[in-house]
Structure formats: structure tokens, C-alpha cells
Design a protein that fits this description.
With 78 residues, the protein is mostly helical. The protein contains two helices and no strands.
Length: 78
């Protein structure tokens, strides 16, 4: 048996389906904000690690260049 549904009844049924959707979106937005915050913290940590590694490598390269220069002078190759 088919039930006749008026447009008003259909509109109320659809509206009832959307009740609480705003609250669900707010909860999702809060979760994404928390995730964004954690990614920002991770980016800062990676930047710090990268700076430390680059600085260390730069110092090591400078020391190697100095040693190569000493060796060149000893061998008299310029």
C-alpha cells in the first residue's frame, strides 16, 4: 500500500533528518583543529632537527676543507 505524503509532511521529515548536523560538524571541526595543532608542533620539531643537522654538517664540511687545504700544502698541489 502506497502512503500519500504531502509536501509539508515530506519537508518535516527532511528537516528532522538534519537535526543535529550542525553539532556533528562542530565536533569534526574541533578534531581537525586539534590535528592542525599537532601538525604545527611536528613542523616546529622537524625544523629544529633540520637546523641542527645542517649546522652540524656545515661544521664538518668546514673542518674537512681545512684538512684538505693542509694536505694540499704538504703535497704542494694547488
Amino acid at each position: 500500500m502506497a502512503k500519500n505524503v504531502t509536501i509539508d509532511t515530506l519537508a518535516r521529515m527532511i528537516q528532522k533528518g538534519f537535526v543535529g548536523v550542525d553539532e556533528k560538524f562542530e565536533a569534526v571541526d574541533k578534531r581537525f583543529d586539534a590535528v592542525d595543532k599537532r601538525f604545527d608542533e611536528m613542523d616546529k620539531r622537524f625544523d629544529k632537527i633540520e637546523y641542527i643537522l645542517i649546522t652540524d654538517h656545515q661544521k664538518r664540511i668546514e673542518k674537512l676543507e681545512e684538512k684538505v687545504e693542509v694536505l694540499r700544502n704538504l703535497v704542494s698541489v694547488k
